[in-house]
Design a protein that fits this description.
The structure holds two protein chains of two kinds. By secondary structure, chain A is α+β, with helices and mostly antiparallel strands. Chain A has two domains: 227 residues, Up-down Bundle (Multidrug efflux transporter AcrB transmembrane fold), CATH 1.20.1640.10; 197 residues, 2-Layer Sandwich (Gyrase A, domain 2), CATH 3.30.1360. Chain A is 55% helix and 16% strand. Chain A has twelve helices and eleven strands. Chain A has a four-stranded antiparallel beta sheet with strand order 2-3-1-11. A four-stranded antiparallel beta sheet of chain A has the order 5-4-8-9. A three-stranded antiparallel beta sheet of chain A has the order 6-7-10. By secondary structure, chain B is of the alpha+beta class. Chain B folds into two domains: 225 residues, Multidrug efflux transporter AcrB transmembrane domain (Multidrug efflux transporter AcrB transmembrane fold, Up-down Bundle), CATH 1.20.1640.10; 74 residues, 2-Layer Sandwich (Alpha-Beta Plaits), CATH 3.30.70.3400. Chain B has a four-stranded antiparallel beta sheet with strand order 2-3-1-4. In chain B, strand 2 and strand 3 form a beta hairpin. In chain B, helix 6 packs antiparallel against helix 9. The longest helix of chain B is centred in the last third of the chain and has 43 residues. The two termini of chain B are 48 Å apart. Classes of the chains: A alpha+beta, B alpha+beta.
Chain lengths: 448, 310
């Protein structure tokens, strides 16, 4: 008879299978839910059921189409690692604003460090005019100070727009640097500005005629800050105070520096995939994956009969667990990742093969089927562990490699290996124990 | 009822045939690599590739060369990709020329919208990837060598553990060299390039195929301990016959999915899948037909020498 513990585990496996399947393909269960919902609306708890979240897979640029650009930043003018980091963040902010302006959804701008060099990686999904984007990204950030018009009436904070302010001629090239300081009396964070000689003179003139008014600072025509001028400021040192947090002050200083000390960037590599090509890649690789899965299922069924059938259930469970993980974490699905997933399907059943082959050997030794099963699982375990260990080891080494293709593949493979061990050692094992405890266990040819 | 159990195969008796096969293949591979060299892709050399799919058919290469000549792109290599795909490779296409080239190629025939792809890699990145690849390959080899050393540490009698380790290492290089030789030939004949995905596949093979070897040798050790009086050759034959179904079947499941990926998976993953197919195939062969007979022959030679010295 089936032990109580097995029953519980079996129930958990079925529940897990149900969840992961519906998580990957939520539309089936959701249509059932929305059909049932009105009919049971009078039951208090059940009418709260809302179905599964319809969360799509996150697709990489090679599958949805788009451009990936890698820029090398020339930071030779900036000294000190902390300053370099700050300069890169400032550059990143500037580029991100430009990219967002371009109207590309889910674009990403990230700083990468590679040994001594600093890089900016930009991902633009579904971009149409690459030339334009590249031209726009490559431009030097333009920082300028603008003043309020002479006939300024009371202005609402919300209408502080570019057109409202008048250029003063004071631009980023006159600003030496900006830094965060703390007010000696209030300890509040402030941003200190330092102008060069020419800039100091201009700044003095501007502040003199604008006391009590706003002085707006724009980068690439985006308003960064619009402090009030309290006094005329001479000597080229000014502070912007306000009730900002240290973080906000830092961000403002960074933005000002991005305009004051522009970091030249040069495009060192790029990869563009058209949307149709991406969709085609997705389709062909998925087709290959499904055919591969079917092929493996057929193979297991032919060679291992009923055990094979159980391993197919475990394999399906495995596939859906893996896909759920990709959705849940979420991991961006790339072509390399799909390659890794497909390969891991082939490797996942290996554990089952090892167990079934052992079972065959053990059954020649003993008549007791349940005993043979136990021994088979026990003996196969070191092989399963070792074979997965080396693959996992190599996957880890590959992960350190850094290139996106290799990383995507290594992540899919490692997750696949872990999920496959679970599916073989928990799912297959418990299914086998459950079915061999029934009358089916006595029909020998089924299990051969 | 795996195929293997149907008969008992004498691996040791036929070992010379397997040695000849392996030595020939390895020798051919090494000469292929030496003569043809390895065709490194732009991942390592830097440069650009530009691909489009035409709606009906790819225009003549000469025509393409002619219309692109005014752009001064330097030497351009043209290749077909699949039925309707055209791939253009050059050292010096810049991003600014992307739109221009797309326009010119569109003048030769209708291009499937959104089918274009363009990749350019600066020499800096190319060099960096080359270095990184070298490091990763060395790390992977060290990891596997350590694994072999640790796995066989406990093995001894009648064979010293280092013999197993050496056999494992020989198998590793055997599995690496043969696919590499095939890629040298493919590179020469069809312009197939060694790129990052192919390196990834090679690394994966490293991790995967060493296991079969370890399992077979582990079984030999088990059988040797079990029947101490037994014949050495018999112990090896027993072990190989016992593990044959396991080795073949685990590889077959992987080969099934890889074949699907190779045939149906599209251009982008084709040679990645091929590398894995070759690696896993050759790896399985070597773990069954090469490693154990190698251990046997070595031990035999040593015994003979010991007898002679006596």
């Amino acid at each position: 008879m089936l032990k109580k513990k097995n029953k519980i585990v079996l129930a958990l496996i079925i529940a897990l299978g149900f969840f992961v399947f519906n998580f990957v393909f939520p539309s089936y269960i959701n249509s059932v839910v929305s059909w049932v919902q009105p009919k049971i609306s009078f039951i208090p708890v059940l009418n709260q059921i809302s179905g599964f979240p319809e969360k799509p897979f996150k697709l990489g640029l090679d599958l949805q189409g788009g451009s990936q650009l890698l820029y090398e930043a020339d930071l030779s003018e900036v000294s000190g690692i902390e300053n370099k980091d700050e300069a890169m963040q400032g550059l990143r902010d500037v580029i991100e604003r430009r990219v967002n302006l371009f109207g590309v959804a889910e674009s990403q701008v990230a700083v990468q460090r590679e040994g001594e060099s600093y890089r900016l990686s930009i991902e633009l999904p579904g971009i149409k005019s690459l030339d334009e984007a590249i031209a726009m990204i490559g431009e030097t950030p333009y920082l300028e100070f603008r003043e309020e018009p002479a006939d300024a009436s009371n202005v609402d904070e919300n209408t502080l727009a570019l057109d409202y302010f008048i250029p003063t001629g004071l631009t980023g090239q006159y600003l030496k640097r900006a830094s965060v300081i703390f007010n000696p009396t209030t300890y509040a964070p402030e941003v200190a500005l330092e102008f060069n000689d020419e800039g100091s003179k201009m700044f003095e003139e501007i502040t003199t005629r604008n006391v009590g008014k706003k002085l707006a600072i724009f980068i690439d025509n985006n308003l960064i800050s619009a402090p009030n001028v309290n006094d005329a400021i001479s000597g080229g040192n000014a502070q912007i105070s306000g009730d900002f947090t240290a973080q906000e002050a830092k961000e403002l200083a960074r933005n000002l520096n991005a305009g004051a000390l522009p970091v030249p960037i040069s495009l060192i590599s790029q990869n563009t995939v058209g949307p149709t090509l991406g969709a085609a890649s997705l389709k062909t690789s998925l087709t290959a994956g499904i055919l591969g899965l079917l092929g493996v299922c057929l193979f297991m069924l032919v060679f291992y009969r009923f055990s094979g059938l159980l391993s197919i259930l475990a394999l399906l469970c495995y596939t859906f667990i893996l896909l759920s993980l990709f959705k849940l974490i979420p991991i961006t699905l790339t072509l390399a990742g799909i390659g890794g997933l497909i390969l891991s399907v082939g490797m996942a059943v290996d554990a089952n093969v090892l167990i079934f082959e052992r079972l065959r050997e053990e059954r020649q030794k003993t008549e007791n089927f349940e005993r043979a099963q136990e021994v088979a699982f026990q003996r196969a375990w070191p092989s399963i562990r070792d074979s997965n260990f080396t693959t996992l080891l190599i996957a880890l080494i590959m992960f350190g490699f850094g290139t996106s293709f290799v990383k995507g593949f290594a992540v899919a493979l490692s997750l696949g290996i872990l999920a496959s061990m679970f599916s073989a050692l928990v799912v297959t094992k418990n299914l086998m124990m459950a079915f061999s405890a029934t009358g089916l266990g006595k029909i020998k040819w089924l299990w051969q | 009822m795996a195929l293997a159990i149907i008969m008992y195969f004498n691996f040791i008796k036929n070992r010379k045939i397997f040695f000849v096969i392996s030595i020939t293949l390895v020798a051919l591979s090494i000469s292929a690599v030496l003569f043809f060299g390895l065709n490194l892709g732009i991942d390592f050399t830097g440069g650009a590739t530009f691909g489009v799919n035409y709606q009906t058919k790819v225009p003549d290469f000469s025509e393409v060369q002619q219309v692109l000549a005014p752009l001064g792109l330097g030497e351009i290599t043209l290749q077909k990709s699949g039925e309707r795909g055209l791939v253009l490779k050059s050292k010096s296409i810049t991003e600014n020329q992307y739109g221009e080239i797309l326009g010119i190629l569109g003048g030769l025939g209708d291009i499937e919208e959104g089918s274009e792809n363009f990749q350019s890699i600066g020499p800096l990145i190319g060099n960096e990837l080359k270095q990184k690849t070298n490091i990763v390959i060395v790390l992977a080899i060290i990891a596997i060598l350590l694994y072999i050393a640790v796995s066989f540490r406990k093995m001894s009698r009648p064979i010293k553990s280092y013999v197993y380790s050496v056999a494992g290492v020989v198998a590793l290089f055997h599995d690496l060299l043969i696919p590499l030789g095939i890629f040298a030939v493919l590179g020469k004949l069809y312009g197939v390039e060694i790129n990052i995905p192919i390196i990834t596949a090679f690394l994966t093979v490293f991790g995967y195929s060493i296991n079969d070897t370890v399992v077979v040798l582990d079984r030999i050790r088990e059988n040797l301990i079990k029947n101490k009086t037994g014949d050495f050759a018999e112990a090896i034959n027993d072990s190989l016959n016992q593990t044959f179904a396991r080795s073949v079947n685990t590889s077959l499941t992987v080969l099934i999915v890889l074949s699907c990926l190779f045939i149906f998976g599209g251009e982008a993953l084709r040679y990645f899948a091929l590398t894995l197919l070759l690696g896993v195939g050759v790896g399985t062969y070597s773990s069954i037909f090469l490693v154990s007979p190698l251990v046997f022959s070595y031990t035999l030679a040593k015994q003979k020498r010991a007898l002679r010295i006596k």
